[in-house]
């Protein structure tokens, strides 16, 4: 076996030992069940670890990750996670978190084929099409890239709000808020994009208007 593989096995042992040193019942308590208050929908990028970014402990964050943190209505994986989080775990917050420097967003800005993922990137390109006037007006490529990341997160929050799962929860009066963030790889800080919706707000802009 490779040195790297041996190292990750050893890291697991050390993590268990360190956790038990702090709390002898740590794993026994975790095994009893979960009731996380948050569902995190983020990018698969290895530099964006959901729990670490917000300082959450195991059991505090339910996580779904895919390339470019997309909320696609035909994605049964995402919908299954969302349904379980909202209707079984009763999370109170759903957070879509993108990040600057996202490879999926960068690929969607170009026309090169990168293989099977082209089919996924097609959805990201749609976001660019929706906002092409604003984006094309930005001359600096880095600024355009960053703005595209932000607009993509906002569109995913809107799409999340329009899912039947979230709509049903709100109609039942269930406490559920959704938010959009962008994470800065070079700073560690998140930016709240102020695209937030909850059951106690006027949602006409989400489910009454046609997008």
TrEMBL record:
Binding residues annotated for Zn(2+), in chain numbering: 43, 45, 99, 102
GO annotation, biological process: carbon utilization
Catalytic activity reported: hydrogencarbonate + H(+) = CO2 + H2O
Cofactor note: Binds 1 zinc ion per subunit.
Enzyme class, first EC level, given as a word: lyase
Zinc found in the keyword field: yes
Keyword Ribonucleoprotein: no
Entry-linked CDD domains: beta_CA_cladeA
Family: Belongs to the beta-class carbonic anhydrase family.
Protein name: Carbonic anhydrase 2
């Amino acid at each position: 076996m490779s040195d790297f593989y041996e190292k990750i096995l050893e890291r697991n042992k050390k993590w268990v030992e360190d956790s038990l040193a702090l709390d002898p019942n740590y794993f026994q308590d975790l095994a009893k069940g979960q009731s996380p208050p948050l569902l995190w929908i983020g990018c698969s990028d290895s530099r964006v670890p959901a729990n670490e970014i917000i300082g959450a402990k195991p059991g505090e964050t339910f996580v779904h990750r895919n390339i470019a943190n997309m909320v696609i209505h035909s994605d049964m994986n995402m919908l299954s996670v969302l349904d379980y989080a909202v209707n079984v775990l009763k999370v109170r917050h759903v957070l879509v978190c993108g990040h600057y420097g996202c490879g999926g967003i960068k690929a969607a800005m170009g026309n090169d084929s990168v293989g099977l993922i082209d089919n996924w990137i097609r959805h990201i390109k749609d976001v660019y099409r929706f906002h092409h006037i604003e984006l094309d007006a930005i001359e600096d490529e880095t600024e355009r890239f960053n703005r595209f990341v932000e607009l993509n997160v906002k569109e995913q929050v809107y799409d999340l709000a329009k899912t039947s799962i979230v709509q049903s929860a709100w109609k039942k009066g269930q406490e559920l808020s959704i938010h959009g963030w962008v994470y800065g790889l070079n700073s560690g800080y998140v930016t709240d994009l102020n695209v937030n919706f909850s059951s106690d707000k006027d949602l006409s802009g989400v489910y009454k208007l046609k997008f």
